[in-house]
Amino acid sequence: MKSSIKLLTSVGTGIAMTALVAAPVFACTPKGTIIKYVTDVTTGSKMVDANTTADALEVHPGDILTYTVVINNAGGTTKDDADAMIETVMTDTLPAGITLTAGTATTINENIGRISEKSKVTKTYSVKVSADAKDGDVINNKACFTGEATNHDKNQHQAGCDVAVIKVKVPVTPTPPVTPPVTPTPPVTPPQVEAATTSLPNTGAGSWFVPAGIAGSLGYAGNMLRLKRRAAKQNR
What we know:
Elements: H1 2-22, E1 32-40, E2 57-59, E3 64-73, E4 85-93, E5 98-100, E6 107-115, E7 119-129, E8 138-149, E9 158-168, H2 206-235
Parallel strand pairs: 2-9
Antiparallel strand pairs: 1-3, 3-7, 4-6, 4-8, 5-7, 8-9
């Protein structure tokens, strides 16, 4: 009996060990990703994933933009809650050149929490391009996330970042055409016509006739004066 008991015990122990080894091990394998998009609401642009200066979205000073951040958990091969991503946090620090349209915060923190396998979470926020932004300014706005596996396996820690790039274009104000000043035309003055001379100039004998007449008159007067004096003496 003792031998039998020992045998049974040995067989039972073997079965137990086999069952322990064959038990499935649940692997926690979330796979977090992040994509950041930008849309110019003012100009009605499309939502773009602009990651470089070459494909940056062109914006203008004062434009209103919408940033859209999508955090996805593509992990796991089966629909299993063990592949969820937990304690997910999204952080976005606004760079110079843009400000939130509501509030004065410069850092956005979103405590997202759990993202199930094959699921995603979308966050949006509105910003305004600075009115004094310069032509050619390139503004990189980066959003990042962190997340953990359900078993907090350090090897399954999730993290990532994505950037949305915009480039400022200052519209050129058209210069109105310069109209040259109109110089008024002076009135036309008709030419002055000299009046015709009605008297002919004294020429020849006529040029000495007047002086001679004057001299004759003076001689006559002098002669008459002498006659009067002589007559006065005789009357005495």
